[in-house]
């Protein structure tokens, strides 16, 4: 009797819409979850609309070519021509492979070609990966390799990278399985020394080992709320076989390893060669054995068959980054001030001063924003409260180099100038 009483007192509620049993026609019970007939009907409607959306996505992807992908990258990323070509070909082949696997052409199993990006900080690695995802209209997630550890140690489990992708896809698993994941600072998890570690290396070789399966392709169990796994927990199951992984790092000192292997004669170094040109030549000769000596394990290198190197940005390229791309930095700041009805003007010498300061600090394109933010901090603080009187803010080289305040033109000054010009014209 006691057991029967417990059973009848149990309150059955739909796990999705939270309606009780008496409010709907029927509730279906599953392992630890309930769903009502109304939610089932809603799911059916969504599934009926699904194939049409998938067909549109596939049609769009079929029109893409490596040249078209590179053109999309050119609109946002300055320079790095070699890296853009490598990425365009790799991404084109990757999605051609995944689309062919669904059709009748799937006679040969083509393995996934994940990509390794090698280049100094601020050279555009993250921007290239994120622009690719936007161009292809697929979910995108970024992870930092330095925050990852082996399962059972303090830090993030590698499966949390996948959760970020699932969230970016609004928990649409089919969409997430076609996404792109970029893992930055991969060089920071190189193992300690060339020999395999006998003891645990939880922030180096151990993380590389933990990443192997999800990069190659597996059915991963992801905690739906992130954090650590624990027994009796429900997991999201995600197939990573068709997720494209792009990993990147600065790999400081890698050119020294390459030079030791090839020697100077093979490169034909001259005394008048620039250091940047020498580095570019050396990276062009990069081999898996160099990465092995740097500290990546053989299994991890094997899962990254495509390698692209990025060069340190030149003065001219940094200047173009400020003004040329669709979302150019200068255009962004001009738009910010324009929202307050204030015109922002950068003099040509100011732009050159920003670039020279960035080159001195060796921070790459990432440093451009920091320099502009620092120079405009006081102005951005005070200008919004004076927007009724301010017409234009002019940034000169002195603002960048000598911490001078930008020149401010008030609306009444402009009106007075216009009045003078008008009077002169009448005379």
Relevant terms:
427 residues; alpha/beta; 48% helix
Structural features, described:
The protein contains 18 helices and twelve strands. Helix 9 crosses helix 11 and helix 15 crosses helix 16. The radius of gyration is 28 Å and the shape is globular.
Gyration radius from CA atoms, angstroms: 28 Å
> How are the strands of the largest sheet arranged?
4-5-8-3-9
Low-confidence stretches: 1-9, 49-59, 151-155, 196-202
Query: How does the helix and strand content classify structurally?
Result: alpha/beta
Strand segment count? 12
Assess the beta-strand content as a share of residues: 5-15%
What is the string of helix and strand elements?
Answer: HEEHHHEHEHHEHEEEHHHHEHHEHHEHEH
Approximate helicity band: 40-55%
Could you tell me the mean pLDDT?
A: 81
Shape: globular
N-to-C terminal Cα separation, in Å? 109 Å
> In DSSP terms, counting alpha (H) and pi (I) runs of 4 or more, how many helices?
18
Oligomer: single chain
Largest sheet: 5 strands, parallel
